[in-house]
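Entry 14. Structure prediction run on the chain below.
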Amino acid sequence: MKTFKYRIVVGWSDDDDTYVARVPALEGCVAHGDSEAEASREARSAAELMLSVLREHGDRIPPEDA
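Output returned:
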């Protein structure tokens, strides 16, 4: 699997009673899961889709931060 070059931050949310993962370089890129690993996988998947759409539309790609 290709190395993902964006930082993923995972933490526990008492309000949601689940793990929440976000990709700080991609505003609004947030995912959740029953484990840290699941939340991280979901965030990476969402980020890859967001980056794909940005590329398709010719929008600015945020710099890699990991």
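The first strand starts at residue 9 and ends at 13.
Filed with the rest of this week's runs.
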